[in-house]
Description:
six-stranded parallel sheet; Pantoate--beta-alanine Ligase, Chain: A,domain 2; three-stranded antiparallel sheet; binds pantoate; alpha/beta
Amino acid sequence: MQSITTTLDLRQFVSRHRQAERPIGFVPTMGALHHGHMALVDRCRADNDVTIVSVFVNPTQFGPSEDFDAYPRDLERDLALCRAHGVDAVFHPGVEEMYPEPLLTVVEVADLSTILIGEQRPGHFRGVATVVTKLLNLVEPDRAYFGEKDFQQLAVVRRVALDLSMRTSIVGVPTVREADGLAASSRNVRLTPDERKAAPAIYEGMQAAVRLSARGERDTVLLLNAVRSRLAREPSIALLSCDLRDSATLDPLDRVMNRPAVLLVTARLGSVVLIDQVELHPDAIREGSAA
Length: 291
Ligand SMILES: Nc1ncnc2c1ncn2[C@@H]1O[C@H](COP(=O)(O)OP(=O)(O)OP(=O)(O)O)[C@@H](O)[C@H]1O
Ligand SMILES: CC(C)(CO)[C@@H](O)C(=O)[O-]
Ligand code: BAL
């Protein structure tokens, strides 16, 4: 496995494989890898001849009072995990390598970037869309893999690829969970033992809504209340947002695929913000009644 830190070496690695006409898959991450990331890597390896992973904690997607400094980092462990999973190259640039000059050019996905998480994290999706564009321009992969846990991010990235006529197919991978239902996340390691014990309530609340929806409940308020009332029993969890959306309003490509409604939750435990999403019955939202 190659460990690459410069864009020049990355381009050379890519061009060798491109000349050999080997399909290239790409998994962008911020490191502190866990089994959720590895599901993306395994899927990438199954679909492509060459798998490239990037590990870059991108400063431009963090707000001034967010956890950029506290974000977990463990490059040696990340490299070992990637090696064990048969990754061909890991690109782990420093900040100066990715941003040699202050940016004058950014990628802004209108509308999608300012709703939901974009409301709580102004500028976040501009940072994500811009760095993903830079990474996709460097690697020019055939396919790039993103987790459905970050559902809005996946929608934003799909839109960037579509609008900017990129050659890359964007592939969404289902959320990987811990045994107790908590979505695997790099930030989970920052939870205190008590917060970690409480955290599965997020998924339990979402499952209560899933069960109601499966029994035919179509009242958005009642479905969202199922989440709220489960989390109200956990004093260490502050529910930041709970939304039910027709997935097509977030992701125009879903309209074609006729995918279900999506329930999105953001919650804070101490200093850690976690997000999760589950799918509900396609009719969970009546026409035009987004929560
Ligand atoms: N549990 C998971 N299941 C599937 N994909 C995941 C999971 N966790 C992360 N991913 C995906 O891995 C990619 C890299 O994510 P990132 O490095 O930000 O990790 P993360 O665990 O989401 O971290 P964070 O603590 O920022 O939420 C993203 O496409 C993300 O959606
Ligand atoms: C897509 C990404 C690697 C861009 O920095 C990041 O937002 C992430 O890890 O989800
Ligand atoms: N996985 C999303 C990246 C972030 O929270 O900044």
